[in-house]
Design brief:
Strand order of the largest sheet: 5-6-7-3-8-9
Structural class: alpha/beta
Bound molecules: adenosine-5'-diphosphate, magnesium ion
Number of domains: 1
CATH architecture: 3-Layer(aba) Sandwich
Number of strands: 9
Oligomer: single chain
Order of helices and strands: EEEHEEHHHEHEEEH
Amino acid sequence: MIRKPLLRIRNLSKSYQRGPETVHALRAVSFDLLEGEVVAIVGPSGSGKTTLLNILCGWDRPDEGEIEWTNGSGDHLDWSATTIVPQRLGLVAELSIHENVELPLALAGVNEADATSPVEALLEALGLDHISEHLPTEASLGEQQRTALARALVTGPRLLLADEPTGHQDADSERAVFRGLRSHAATGGTCLVATHNLEATRFCHRILRVDDGRVTVETTSDDDDLDRELSPFAPRITPRLEE
Ligand code: ADP
Ligand code: MG
């Protein structure tokens, strides 16, 4: 399958000052992201995965390098088309699981009646329907993490960033997470997933290896094998907001 480019990342560098020490979190990282692919970033703790995701979602700024959004909208990042599943989740404690997932649609002006069906479809696909009226604190960490994923998927982002999204999942839920990511990719969305779970990478189209701030190896998996392994699954995930 020929995929169109989405993001072109060139020579991205980022250092942090920690007391007298300079930490090189990213060193001249370059790679492309294509439409409709799920890409894993694999690397040991401290290798720069979170730094990279934080820069791509606009929470942090690179010291050097370029990020070019290549879908024709110009050379700036299209922030409104990017969502993230942060490692610390950031769920709103006072809102139910359902309301947390609905929140981005509400903020985008989608009325409640139109939001209900996409929210419910995602809650069901991610095994959250039984706790949808509960608060995040009444759910397990794995369920909270899947809620943050549903919240990121619900607007149909062009780019979905996920920081260790299977860190608290059992094997079945891990598959549900990757099915969610892959079905998003099947609609043309791109997913970039930081993980140190090598098992999980078999659900990704490509693997970027990060070591000490450098992207060192890139491997590609066969598309059809992946889809076969994850089928059958046909969740209805919302169309993109802007379309
Ligand atoms: P990973 O997500 O792969 O575990 P990070 O991107 O969080 O790695 O961190 C990469 C390196 O940058 C680590 O050495 C980390 O300690 C350092 N680092 C990350 N954020 C900061 C910060 N705000 N200040 C100082 N050092 C940081
Ligand atoms: Mg991290």
